[in-house]
Amino acid sequence: MSRGRRYDEPKLNLKKVFAVIILFVVIIMCIVMLKGILDGDEEQGNVTSIDYFAAYQNNKWGVIDSNGNIVIDPSYAEMIVVPNSKEDVFLCTFDVNYDDGTYSTKALNSKNEEIFTNYEQIEAISNTDESQNLSYDSKVLKVQSGGKYGLINMEGNEVLPCEYDEITALQGVENTLLVSKDGNYGTVSDEGKILLPTEYAEIQNLGDEASQGFIVRNAEGKCGIVDIGNGQVLETKYDNIAKIHQGDYYVVTEDGKQKVVNRDGTESLNGSYDEITAILKNPENGVIYKDGDKFGVMSLSGETTIGTQYDDLKEAKTGVFIAKTGENYGIIDLEGNTLVEFKYRGITYNEKADLYVTEDESYNNEVLDSNYEIKLTGMVTDLDDEKGYIEVRQDDEYKYYNFRFEEQKESDIFSSNTLFVSKKDGKYGFVDKDGNVVVDYIYDDVTNQNAFGYAGVKKDGKWGSIDRNGKVVQEPTYDLEDYLQVDFIGSWYLGKDLNMNYYRK
């Protein structure tokens, strides 16, 4: 039986297949790049993430975004609070009656729509640190319903029911709130978790974190310390407890005398001084104490280690102290030996970087390493212990160093920036990361590019701004000489009161 002819199947031309695949890849890449360019045009060359800020114009308040666009028209008499710059939740206060203290509130989103409308009042929860810097809780809002207060998150979901007489921040502690009910106090996290039940006459923070515990006072006026789970750390029997602790050691007052108490109940010292101001980082070394207006160091057994001869005394790291005599500061050790001469008007220690920054009468700085050797001089304008750099103004130029005091390129530190400050013949301009001039050397002063792509430029005594491409957004017209910080978003400049964190024009 004959068979029909079997025709050979055609072979794949691999070169052509690869060529087609590459062509598709190129087309996809072009589409992505084109989209990026178009998106960039729409955003006028600015960063894609959007932040929001209160804005002030013509004596009215509104909101702008980080591209300088008006989101809420400045039309409110009271400042609009933006509790979280990443969330489009803006809190407005209106119909204020200054005679009886009443007012109305509402929340708006970036579409100018009213949100969270099923509450009588809605407010941000403000907090201040020990330097009185103002901040807002970024996770939750205080709401009122039926005359009682509760918490919602930024999406409007309830995290704490409206059953409390009042809710405020526990001052100086992040993410922890003080709640009251029937005259008693408790604490909750800003996730709505109960930390302490509402059974105390008074609650204070022991440190700057809730995990360090709380000082509580009972109805009889006696103080103790409880931890974050309401476990007893120190018995509630003391007249007062200072916000001073180190490990398991605390400073308490009993029968009018201040002393140190260990968590296990062991007591040290017995009031042969005016005041204990600190427990040393190694508690076995003792405490810093004060007699009259002078400071010294005393062991837990009561022996004087450093006599009360200093006008100020703070421990920088274990066994090393920043001390003050008269108007000048120096550094000493636990034996009282002088490690750094008393010739500075100020000294600060950065624990993460393990370095000291001194300041003289003219606000010039010297940076000392852990061996107290001078490594940098100039004016320290920034020390970022997260990114690990020091910014120093030297000879009217900004220079950058790591914590090994090696000079760094600005482009290495701020790798996402498109513009970098450059100086030539006494004038400032901007270059790109390769050193190519983008903005000519025509300005008397400039600022670094900020997180939103803008930089301030100064000419003939006036300030304006440029965008991330070097294009002038605001001609230099603003007199900002008495402003502590010059910063721009588009044509809007940062307000004088840095605590309020708003922009104006």
Summarize the structure in words.
By secondary structure, the chain is mostly beta strands. It has a domain at 436-505. Helix content is 7%, strand content 51%. It is built from 2 helices and 49 strands. It has a 7-stranded antiparallel sheet with strand order 33-34-35-36-37-38-39. It has a 6-stranded mixed sheet with strand order 3-2-1-49-48-47, with no helix packed on it. Mean pLDDT is 90; it is low at 1-47.
Furnish the topology, listing elements before pairings.
Elements: H1 14-42, E1 52-57, E2 60-65, E3 70-76, E4 90-97, E5 102-108, E6 114-115, E7 121-123, E8 126-128, E9 134-136, E10 140-145, E11 148-153, E12 158-164, E13 166-169, E14 176-181, E15 184-189, E16 194-200, E17 202-205, E18 214-217, E19 223-226, E20 232-238, E21 240-246, E22 249-254, E23 257-262, E24 267-268, E25 275-279, E26 287-291, E27 294-298, E28 304-310, E29 312-317, E30 320-325, E31 328-333, E32 338-344, E33 346-350, E34 355-359, E35 365-368, E36 374-384, E37 389-394, E38 397-402, E39 407-408, H2 410-413, E40 420-424, E41 427-431, E42 437-443, E43 445-446, E44 455-459, E45 462-466, E46 472-478, E47 488-489, E48 492-494, E49 502-504
Parallel strand pairs: 1-49
Antiparallel strand pairs: 1-2, 2-3, 4-5, 5-6, 7-10, 8-9, 10-11, 11-12, 13-14, 14-15, 15-16, 17-18, 18-19, 19-20, 21-22, 22-23, 23-24, 25-26, 26-27, 27-28, 29-30, 30-31, 31-32, 33-34, 34-35, 35-36, 36-37, 37-38, 38-39, 40-41, 41-42, 43-44, 44-45, 45-46, 47-48, 48-49
